[in-house]
Design brief:
Mean pLDDT: 87
Shape: elongated
Helix content: over 70%
Number of domains: 1
Radius of gyration: 14 Å
Number of helices: 4
Number of strands: 2
Order of helices and strands: HHHHEE
Strand content: 5-15%
Low-confidence stretches: none
Strand order of the largest sheet: 1-2
Length: 95
């Protein structure tokens, strides 16, 4: 179960890498919404067995940790202003 949850988290990480910076910042700026949508989608996909729901729960937790790490690394938007993370990416953001 834990391994499958980690695979789901890696899937989110790959999705974040493929997005442009505008969409990445949109996802990183709304972590609660993204966490809820991921958890609901994973529960719908894996519903039916205890192990499936546990995979969905662990996957949502790993996705939440991935988003938190990305927010720490790259920052996020708060009230229309960029809050820098460890790496300052102001020059990559659209004006």
């Amino acid at each position: 179960m834990i391994e499958m949850g980690i695979v789901v988290g890696i899937g989110l990480l790959i999705t974040l890498v493929k997005m442009n910076w505008k969409w990445r910042m949109h996802m990183l700026s709304n972590p609660l919404f993204v966490d809820l949508m991921i958890f609901i989608a994973l529960c719908l996909i894996h519903w039916g067995t205890f192990s499936g729901v546990m995979v969905a729960t662990v996957g949502a937790m790993v996705c939440s940790l991935t988003l938190s790490a990305a927010r720490w690394l790259y920052g996020h938007n708060e009230a229309g202003m960029y809050v820098p993370g460890y790496f300052d990416i102001r020059n990559k953001l659209p004006q």
